[in-house]
Automatic annotation (TrEMBL):
Cleavable signal peptide: none
Designated name of the protein: APC family permease
Taxonomic superkingdom: Bacteria
Localization in the cell: Cell membrane
Residue stretches spanning the membrane: 12-34, 46-66, 87-115, 127-148, 160-179, 191-209, 230-251, 271-297, 327-346, 352-370, 391-410, 416-434
Topology within the bilayer: Multi-pass membrane protein
Keyword Aminoacyl-tRNA synthetase: no
Principal location listed in the UniProt entry: membrane
InterPro entries: AA/rel_permease1 (IPR002293), APC_superfamily (IPR050367)
Pfam families found in the cross-reference section: AA_permease_2
Amino acid sequence: MENQKQLRKGIGLFIATALVAGNMMGSGIFMLPATLAQEAGPGSTMIAWLLTGIGSIFLALSFANLGSRYPQSGGPYEFSKRGFGDFIGFINAWLYWNGSWIGNVAVILAIASYAGNLIPTISSKHLIGFLVTSAILWIFTIINILGVRLAGKIQTAITAFEIILFLIFVVVAAMHFHAGNLTPLFPAHKGAGAVSVAASSTLWAFIGLESATVAGGEIRNPQKNIRRSTILGISIATLLYMAINFFAMGAMNQKALAGSPAPISDILAQFFGTGIGRLITIAAVISILGTTVGWLLSTARVAYAAGVDGVFPKSFAKVHAKYQTPYMALIIGSVLANILLLMNYTKSFNSAFNFVVLLATLSYLPVYAMTAASEIRLMKKMYGKVTVLKFIKVSFIPLLGFIYAGWAIYGSGAKTVMYGFLLLLAGIPFYLYMNYKREAVPEEKPASSITADI
């Protein structure tokens, strides 16, 4: 294994689109219809999806524009470093990397939770649960080490399976749709005031919109494919999200939907019998496995880019001599994820999942806000001379994305914001130490070039 600085360009448009859509469509969609029915009425739920979808599309467009202009691995780290300097770049890398490996734990816990319905020992015996989740983590870490193309193909196949599953659900639910289940649209205590609460629940479903930019250094024809895959991926996921929730609310009354532990399988069970529940559980496990592949891939790329620049330890920049993947960044992230799994293995999967999601969500939002701001900051470099009219035109979308990210942070609640702020503060001593090391040992700035298409 050599400490190379080059990654293999093994991702085309199709796989890049699957990476975006697959990373977004993870565990949340299987439970969100019930969660939202508990928090809001049908009207507030659809408004929340619409607001979250529009805000996320604004953010995705900023990622797409920047990713097409700066197609290096690292995505939000690379953009903020160019726009605001090394410190803000480090903060973005720190928050995104920590949010990603913490989020990987949430995804793996969700797999174990669903699998526990099939094999009760996984849920009832904490040690067995820990061993199963650890095995899942390392199997898919090894798959990612073996090559980005292999990992991409596996996620593409699973994402296609997931989309087919959701389309079947939408068709069946639409055939049994009853408008009466949507009334009242704004019930007491779940009216328009519940929109912000519902929007905070839908937010987790949109994490992953930046995935193509994070793997930008491994995408073929990145100037076109990063933008295309980002827009296609978020469009597919958003349309499916809204269709699944709308038809779920029409196929089951609100009270039953709010009390359902597995809304998609319970709705299908109304029409095909209880045996369908087991099949849907298996399908859910397969679907979330695809998310695991994609998120492990994304987690390593930001850490790799920061390692190349020396703001993370150089070990993160090591690339496997044979497979041309950032194997050390993958291994370090998975070791930390395994430690977090160990720390939570005595809890139920549900309580551990909720805690981990709380930590992960607030890690991403400041990164999204700073990426939108970076597009405005880099306007002159990206588009040349800037007039007043051009400034207004170019900054309109990223400014709306920035405002949305700020609103989402505010709506996440004081406790979540506190955890995010503490995580940010924890990175500052790490940055000071790495900065001291770079100044103490002058070295040639690493090249950011990448290999040609293979």
